[in-house]
Amino acid sequence: CACDLHHALQNGDCTLCSKLHLQCEAPGSLASTAVPDTNHTRLEPNAQEAHRCLPPAVSDRCPGSHKCGVGYDGTLCSSCADGFWATRGKCEPCAEASSTSIASLVLLGVGASLAAAFLAYRQIYGQQVPEAASVKTLLQKLMVRQGPVVLQLLQLWSVLSRLGQQNSSSDKGLPEVPYLESLQLTTTELQNSLNLQCSFHAQTVRTVAAITSPLGPLLLLGCCAALELYSAGFGVNMALKTLTFLFIGGASSTAQLLSCQSEDGDGASLEKFAFRKAVRHLSCSQRDGVAFWVDVVGFSTAVAYGVIIPLFLVGLMLRQHFALQEARLFASCAERKPPHTTLHLEMLDGQLAKETVPKRLLAAAAAHMAVHCRGTRRVQLLEKSATIIAVSDNQEEEIELDIMKTVADAETSRSIDVLRSRRITEMLTERIMLEETKDRWLIGSRPLLLKYALCQDVWMDVAMKLFAVALVSCVSMADAWKWAIAFSLGMAVLVAACQPYMEPQVNQLQSLSCLCLALASVAFVYDWAVLARLTLVAPVMLMLWQVRSPDCTEALAERLFQELQAELPKLQREEPHELLVQQIRL
């Protein structure tokens, strides 16, 4: 006997077709031959139920027929057919893509040339005498420090956008996501830009790109090791720059390479039909042939990004800890007898070499003036002390946002200033030692160390790398958005509490960026496009607000020390030097 309308015969029983995601428009339908519903397809021919396809473009890849949509193929119609290329999760005809290849190549070449020219300029001219302080130079320096923070935000934001693809039933997506994904600078994004899938065998190109994407940054790091033989510190410096630009893209590619799509669009298990997300024609259970090399590359690069690279940074952290510990073994003491303030050094252990005392005293004087003084000051260097004489005071005192001082009483506020002065003295002393060091590791890592208030705060770089690894790894997990929120909020609180960077503006931007990543996770899961875009706009608005005040106490202390250091021969003859102590504002 035949089944009624809207029912199909399945294993001898009549089952409601809506449960099987099938179209049964006439009595007597069979589950093995009925047409699948729109947005659904069979996992194999004559299967007795259909599964929901994966976003994006669900209706295009699964139009509700026995075959995949035009240009789609494979399990859940997730792969691209011959003559089509995979881009941004969709399959586009090669004829439509060919017109963009030349433009993409030109843009890529121009971008690479500009990046190479910038790095070469910094390497050749970066050690010249700095320009006189101005709003322009301060903004340039601030933007250099803010740039990696913004790049990290954009790269991780594009990674988190996959949460929307996994949890959304809509085909609509944010149009800016593909452009931000290209900032991950992976081989996959490169072949998409050059449209190599249409010039060569598409499946082979996608497979090679998926395998080489996590390997690319590691190979460049190997080249940096060779550069170290050319010049002491140069290889280390380039390796750290490589990690700044390529670490997140490489780690994300590794996570994709090891991820399996084990559920359909409705969350039902695919069982033996589960396939690899990065190489979709390979099943997760397959272990031979190309799958073997995918596993080898995936697990080895996972160790590199999750263990070896963080350990490399930990090694730099320990190296600077032991090499620069002298900066933490003395303290400056101030005796105030207005209008004079006399500074002298006290060792916690051992004794300072005589030739190092003048620069340490100048560092203490610069730190003291940056924290406690505004206006014109005259500095005189003696054999074992430095004297600061007030010439004139600036009544328009610059105010920096300091939450601790806003809630503290007068005595506690003074203690906060004293501790800050001591911290800045240590910061300047570390910079003196970094300029004098012959250690190739410290020479190469100098730009990295100088962006922190104290060199020991480089632990934040390790934490940021582990944070990035955690985010790109959890995206493919169950309840991924909850983990992403937890990691992002935790990092935002950590940065706000520790204030590791030299410029307060960078601390604020980094903390806000992590908070925005937490909000972006929620926005992508619930398809809140406005909130997702606001998480990109908010850091930009903060940067624009910070333009009005690009200076800070630490930067002022650094400028004062550089000015005093330039006058060191005169000061060593016990001749006074007069300088203006004030922050620069727009």
Please summarize the sheet with the most strands.
5 strands, antiparallel
Spatial arrangement of strands, main beta sheet: 14-15-17-16-18
- The quaternary organization reads as single chain
Q: Give the integer mean of the pLDDT values.
A: 85
Output the number of helix runs: 22
User: What structural category do the secondary elements indicate?
Assistant: alpha+beta
Whole-angstrom Rg: 30 Å
In terms of DSSP E residues, the strand content is 5-15%
Describe the 3D structure.
- The protein is α+β, with helices and mostly antiparallel strands.
- It is built from 22 helices and 18 strands.
- The chain has helices at residues 17-20, 58-61, 94-97, 101-125, 135-160, 162-167, 177-181, 187-194, 202-230, 234-258, 290-323, 357-372, 403-407, 410-436, 440-444, 446-450, 459-474, 480-498, 504-525, 529-546, 553-566, 568-572; strands at residues 7-10, 13-16, 22-23, 29-30, 35-36, 40-41, 51-52, 72-73, 79-80, 84-87, 90-93, 260-261, 275-276, 330-337, 340-347, 375-381, 385-393, 577-581.
- The strands form seven sheets. A five-stranded antiparallel sheet has the order 14-15-17-16-18. Strands 2-1-4 form a three-stranded mixed sheet. The protein has a two-stranded antiparallel sheet with strand order 3-5.
- Helix 10 runs antiparallel to helix 11, helix 17 packs antiparallel against helix 18 and helix 19 (504-525) packs antiparallel against helix 20 (529-546).
- The longest helix has 34 residues, at 290-323.
- It is elongated.
- The termini are far apart.
- Mean pLDDT is 85; it is low at 97-102 and 124-130.
